[in-house]
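Hello forum,

I keep getting stuck at the same step: I have a sequence, I want structure tokens, and every attempt I make locally crashes halfway through. Rather than fight my setup again tonight, could one of you with a working pipeline run this one for me? It's a single chain of 578 residues.
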Amino acid sequence: MAEFQFPPGWPKASIAETYKILTAPGAPFEMEEAVVRGNSFRVYKNARPHLRALYDEGVNFAEREFIAYEGESITYGEHWRAANALGRVLLERYGIRKGDRIVNAMRNLPEWSIVFWASVAIGAVAVPLNAWGLGPDLAYGIKDSGATVAILDAERLDRLRPHIGELGGVKLIVVRPTAGQDDIPSLESLIGKQSDYAKLPGEPLPDPKLATDDNATIFYTSGTTGQAKGVLGTHRNIMTNLVTLGFSGARAFVRRGEPVPAPDPNAPQQVMLLPVPFFHVTGCHSVLVPTYAAGNKLVLMHKWNADRACELIEEHKVNATTGVPTMIWQLLDSPEFERRDHSSVTAITYGGAAAAPELAQRVMRLFPGTLPGQGYGATETSSVSTSNGAEDYQAKPQSVGIPVPIADLRVTNADDQVLPQGEVGELWIHGCHVAVEYWNKPEQTARAFQNGWYRTGDVVRIDEEGFVYLLDRARDMLIRGGENIYCVEIEDALMAHPDVIDAAVVGLPHKILGEEVAAIVRLKRGAKTDDASIKAHVGRLLPAYKVPVLVEFRDDELPRNASGKILKTQLRQELKKD
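Reply #2:
Ran it on my machine without issues. Output:
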């Protein structure tokens, strides 16, 4: 592929000038100061006040298709009526009141969205649980959140069944029940069949009198180490992320010296493929919520499969998709990719893990005219905190981007002292998008959240323009003979090998050096590369002490949590057993 050509004279505006333009009075990202829970933040002046306000806008798109799932289709109007019907059932039959918690535990089904919007529209706190979790995990989330009602699909109910006696008075509702589950009320019995949603009453739900800083969600962290923690988020957190999502695109226009296009209500409906779980903030805050706000169409997958994703892109003429970098690699390397029409795709983004620069080149080569983007965030920051896209991403492909307008960043050493620009340390994030606390965990809250700042545990450096370079998780960094080695750098080198589709680097215990570099590698289909070739490839890109002393090949996918992060603790344990 020819080298990327920047527009003549790019950039027309510096990063500082771009921010000033986009956040000025009357601009799309105009800001003002607000005091929230005793801390002062910059907030978007024109953000919607809460999710209920956004939910009621859905009637404006009543005739449009909203969700497509395995041959099923639901319009915005049908979805709104179904969520209203469920909201009334929760209020009148189950006695739900503002602030009560409602658990939502299921795969990416259309009903997930109905349960989520019904919950937040009546002022309850939505508690999505990890659908990958086993029975004890589900029981823990229900008990820890103090949920009044738990709505589960059939598979989750079967997993939970042995633990129902531990749940006290929690009321259960099952979605799409199977044989033997008729002892639990079904969603269909409460609101009717999907085919009859259009016939449900059209009156709005009672107004719960929400405030912007009321609690809205508890998302449980992926739990790469230890027990999952419930991250308590507010309506402001989610509405802030909704505004933020438009910033990277607007920034690109200003950097080119072009006017930022005004929203076009008559623009064709866009189609988004969702391959990541709803129960992660990416799937909910950064896909479901903005799709709903724009009146666009969402194509769901029961579970990730690259071949099936290629089929769905062709079938639904998908315009955009997102995922963790490994998902995008798998999509591009699927045998179905070359056999399917993907000309409709105009946007591909990824996040949740560091991405090798080679991925952006592959995306642009296989999707001509598409400029990929990536971002960085966490459950604790309600999704996006930095973003990188368009020409900025081409200029600095190893960076996860610059902070969004309402966010401040700092880098600290092991003593929590702020380091000068350019030095390597732990990233802290401050902003109105930072969540409130870890639910029922005051000690862990005190360690992670301090005066509106969230300490991420990620090792980064920030350059003179504010671009963030993610080097490692603090606990994943390895130390060889007193030298810090950041795994992401080596993983990027491994991913640049033409035969590698996935890779992880961990520390291998060594009596003298402390740790040495070990790589776990998954090759593309049919590749025959050996460990000597892998080591030689890394040696051409990095110093000798960063070359893996051990390369272990895996046929199966590397273990990941629900947010796409590799479970390195598990990999270390597996290597120790070998």
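The chain has 19 helices and 28 strands. If your local run keeps crashing, start a new thread with the error log.
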